[in-house]
């Protein structure tokens, strides 16, 4: 508990450095990851991270220094070479982007491992610690490292603000961007260059193996909550920052647990929460919408069956469960269950005599019947389908029509085909008439 309170109050300078660095990594990765994900370059960060490994090894071999600016410079150079190679392969050959990314990723990573193995077997005295770039070691960050990361992150955010409109057009309407005189290749290279720098920011803490997760996961989590790019960018940065800070606190409580993997796990947890509980795109919200649609369709079917049975009987009366089973083709228990649900909604009455629509149920049921029949007439008179093929399409569409759409259909059929829309007969020739009961045109639909 004492260790947790100490970490919470940031009494340890190392914890403060790691916390701030993790915040930078998460926020920068989330913001740039939004553009990468929407651009379809989700794995680009992974490829660039692996391409940076040989640069780290070559910079050390060239200078003999483990200074972060020196190593990041080498990593950036090989990362940029990786971007150029991917662009060259995709533009000059028939190899697709995913294959090009795979080629660059594996080749550069293999070269990096060979160079690191050579360094470890050499007689260089200060070689220890270079392998932290593989899996990350946030605890090794010092104040100078955080300063370098802060400058790089600030530069990235400034460039994003300046080129935001260009990046947005590149993602959603590249043809429009090109019509304005911009080079798509140059704008895309600028975006890839920023992704390279973002990878370099997080390389020391998260490592080449996991840095792609800090680019992709916060961005994908943010995508569940919004449809707007600027909101997604900000939200992804927040999710990434929260993941970095939380990962730092949690790893500080567990001895020898690296911060980078914990950050990734926290980001994954936030992704799962977003995927399940986001209000519009989440799994739960989609399930609730699908269930509401299914319940509405079942309600419409039963009410429509009651209206059509009433038409054939020529009078209003309760109809037995068996009559509804024969009309709907449902199982008896399903009819009973749906009738009980509609009784709770005050759409029907249900007793030993049978099921009968209430005024509210009659209003909605007659509206559904009219939607079904008008759509059948529309399909036939527009020569879209033959009369014996329109029932199923009308059955699917009747649940979606609104009073405004219905009024437009009435206008078309009345004007172009002379149909009396106040008396719509069954197009299949049964001769059953229809008159709106308990509802005038334009009145609110009950339900």
Detailed description of the structure:
The protein has 2 domains: 2-278, Orthogonal Bundle (ABC transporter involved in vitamin B12 uptake, BtuC), CATH 1.10.3470.10; 282-447, Orthogonal Bundle (Arc Repressor Mutant, subunit A). Helix content is 71%, strand content 2%. It has helices at 2-8, 13-38, 44-63, 68-92, 97-121, 132-135, 143-162, 164-172, 174-179, 184-206, 211-223, 229-253, 259-277, 283-313, 321-328, 332-344, 359-381, 391-397, 403-417; strands at residues 348-351, 354-357. A two-stranded antiparallel sheet has the order 1-2. The chain starts with a helix and ends in a 30-residue tail after the last helix. 37% of the residues are buried.
Summarize the structure.
By secondary structure, this protein is mainly α. The chain is built from 19 helices and two strands.
Q: Label the overall shape.
A: elongated
What's the architecture of the largest domain, going by CATH? Answer: Orthogonal Bundle
Helix content: over 70%
* Cα Rg: 32 Å
Physical arrangement of strands within the biggest beta sheet: 1-2
CATH C-level class of the largest domain is: Mainly Alpha
Number of helices: 19
| Sequence stretches where pLDDT stays below 50 over 5 or more residues | 430-447
User: Mean pLDDT, rounded to whole units?
Assistant: 82
